[in-house]
Amino acid sequence: MIKHKKAQWPWHGLTALVLVGLAVSLYYATSVISYEWRWSRVPQYFAYQAEEAQRAAGYGKVEAIVQQGSMAKVILRDEDGGEQVLDVEQSSLQLSKGDDVAEGDLIGVTRHWTAGPLAWGLWTTVWISLASGVLGLLVGLVAGLCRLSNNPTLRDLSTVYVELVRGTPLLVQIFIFYFFIGTVLNLSREFAGVAALALFTGAYVAEIVRAGVQSIARGQSEAARSLGLSASQSMRHVVLPQAFKRVLPPLAGQFISLVKDTSLVSVIAITELTKSGREAITTSFSTFEIWFCVAGLYLLINLPLSHFASRLERRLAQSD
């Protein structure tokens, strides 16, 4: 008997209709509060042309000005016969040939593209997420295995660590780590922020690892031991590879949460993406535009991560 596949386009159409409804609702909400959209102010917070002033190093005279397209090469001759050559934008040139100059006089400016605050905030969020994620994975793996250890001391200490970290807010942990531990050990705010995030992530990773290992049938470990493998070899070569396939989805979710949790390190004056967004709002007065861009940048990090984890999970499932 042939089964006919149901048409999917009505459901896709319903999805599109819901999204259009949300967009219309947003437009109506902003019109009610008379909000004026200013998207033209946003690009400068990603990249802009910075101006660098070029000034005379001492007292002297403009000996020559050589035009080179939009640039001008200004040759200054000081009182001792020394020469100073400056390349400036032609449109910004403040002097002409033969003019006298004093030390510190503005000759012109040079312009170059540079990253804006939102771009720098995105970079800070990425490297903090990467550093704390790798450290958190290592800490969580060790703590998770200690939770399964036959040694009571290792088991008790790892349990205290996991329960203590999971039972207190991350914001409080960041404050404690920076203002107490960081002050005592003279740590930088970046190190304190990464360490706090790593320990927080490690506690959740430890529980994920513990649950994944315990989900593997005991017979797997016993069979490995019967083949002559030691307990550590059995764990490393038999149990952990199987457990990794099962814990990958929750691990991916934990690391996606970590990217969003990096916004909390702004409380210790680390200018990551969220703090950069707040600073941009104070100068642009484009509240909604900046926050939409910040949300989009977080999606730019998390969507590829989620897609990569899904593909890896499918590949591992095929290898079973």
From TrEMBL:
NCBIfam families documented for this protein: HEQRo_perm_3TM (TIGR01726)
List the SUPFAM superfamilies: MetI-like
Q: Which residues form the ABC transmembrane type-1 domain?
A: 122-309
Question: Where exactly are the transmembrane stretches of this chain?
Answer: 12-30, 120-146, 167-185, 191-209, 280-301
The entry sums up its family as follows: Belongs to the binding-protein-dependent transport system permease family. HisMQ subfamily.
Q: In which domain of life is the source organism classified? A: Bacteria
Q: Which organism is it from?
A: Pseudomonas laurentiana
What protein does this entry describe?
A: Putative glutamine transport system permease protein GlnP
The record's annotation in PANTHER family points to: GLUTAMINE TRANSPORT SYSTEM PERMEASE PROTEIN GLNP, MEMBRANE COMPONENT OF AMINO ACID ABC TRANSPORTER
Q: Does the keyword tRNA processing apply?
A: no
Task: Provide the protein's localization.
Answer: Cell inner membrane; Cell membrane
GO MF, one annotated term: transmembrane transporter activity
| Biological process according to GO | amino acid transport
Q: Which InterPro entries match?
A: AA_ABC_transptr_permease_3TM, ArtM/GltK/GlnP/TcyL/YhdX-like, MetI-like, MetI-like_sf
Pfam families noted in UniProt: BPD_transp_1
Q: What does this protein do?
A: Part of the binding-protein-dependent transport system for glutamine; probably responsible for the translocation of the substrate across the membrane.
The question of whether Secreted is a record keyword is answered with no
What PROSITE patterns does this protein's entry cite? ABC_TM1 (PS50928)
Give the record's membrane topology: Multi-pass membrane protein
Any one annotated GO CC term: ATP-binding cassette (ABC) transporter complex
Q: What are the entry keywords?
A: Amino-acid transport, Cell membrane, Membrane, Transmembrane, Transmembrane helix, Transport
